[in-house]
Write a structure and sequence with these properties.
The structure is a homodimer. By secondary structure, chain A is an all-alpha fold. Helix content of chain A is about 65%, strand content about 0%.
Chain lengths: ~220, ~220
Amino acid sequence: MTDRVETKAPVRRRKEARPQELTAAALSLFVEKGFAATRLDEVAARAGVSKGTLYLYFDSKEALFLAVIREGIVPIIEEGRKLLEAHADDPERMLREYLFGWWALFGSTELGGVPKLMTSEAQNFPEVAQYYVREVILPGKALMREVLDRGVAKGVFRQTNSELVTHILMAPLLHLALWRHSFAVCCQVPDMDPAAYLESFFDLVLKGLAVTPEGGK
Amino acid sequence: MTDRVETKAPVRRRKEARPQELTAAALSLFVEKGFAATRLDEVAARAGVSKGTLYLYFDSKEALFLAVIREGIVPIIEEGRKLLEAHADDPERMLREYLFGWWALFGSTELGGVPKLMTSEAQNFPEVAQYYVREVILPGKALMREVLDRGVAKGVFRQTNSELVTHILMAPLLHLALWRHSFAVCCQVPDMDPAAYLESFFDLVLKGLAVTPEGGK
DNA sequence: GATAAATAACTGACTGGTTAGTAATTAAAT
DNA sequence: ATTTAATTACTAACCAGTCAGTTATTTATC
């Protein structure tokens, strides 16, 4: 490096950063318009490159889809696990952290559009769907089940079919995210405050899971 | 030729039946493959006609989409309302009928794929989405709110934010339908029994909504 | 009641626009 | 000078929507 004039010229060649820039652009557009309706030209343009460049890093549109999931979501799961471990001794608190943490780390971000995306395209891209189930849905449910089981063990929650209840408890979270990325965008719906929604949900579930008062009917 | 074979010949012209046959074919395919991935040639073929015929009855692919919603779902809402009126004096029973009726009349049928469809395409077809919100989602929620309010009035359910709680209670129903039409199809997931799922959900909600025992904390 | 004319339902080849993916080419870095 | 990054121009396939023409059914005429 003899001379230093590079500050002005736009940096052109960024092999390391490109994949991340492209998956970020793809995530935005996939979430916004759906997978099928998103043109690879657009993805490239939003990342500031041409379509040809995109093909230097990803073999196909489907490969890009898979990368979006892998880069975007898989790391979040691990973060969530750590968050919960901090309250492993208090199941009620753990449940609360799950709900609000899910929203803070995932639902409220751009990633919150991924459930919509995956649900729509699962049939058309079975391999991506299987990856998503294995790496996201099952670990996420396992984490929820951990919360429930711990509550039962501590005598705070009553015994339930935890397989079914984990499914049921994930639903309002996913629904909140789906709603935001579908009808809330195009139809003027009475604005729903996520915090109030989660608070109501937490309240409902806590009472629904509470052990029946001492020997009561 | 002299011989008469007219009884054998398939009836060709069925002006009255066509739209219904076409929307039925479209529903199946839209649910199965998604709106964007469904070709109108396929829809026509499944209805036993050519693509040209489809355009005699529907102006565009979007118009067909709208017709699928209108013909398929809107009538169900009215059916649901009647079902609930039969138990207007018993809120717990009403809630139970809502959950299981929703599944029987809607979720378990082919129409159960429509929420997935609408969620995916709401952004791309705002007019269809607005119609769906107005004619399906809002009436459906109003019906649920009726159940809750009646329960509160009768002193069976505790007071809650019924706007938020209706949303929350719809979520596990929709989730069940979405699941069936996405991941359950392409990934070998441990089979989830809808009846058991609904039973668990009903149990959870009933306890979650119960008025706190006489003055208890 | 047979035949012809008119109409309604339907067909399938075609068009025009779109887009995933490729190949030829240029620019930059070492 | 060679390798790597990126662009541009291209291709091949796809599909919504059209339309000139065909077949079936109804109506009119004798």
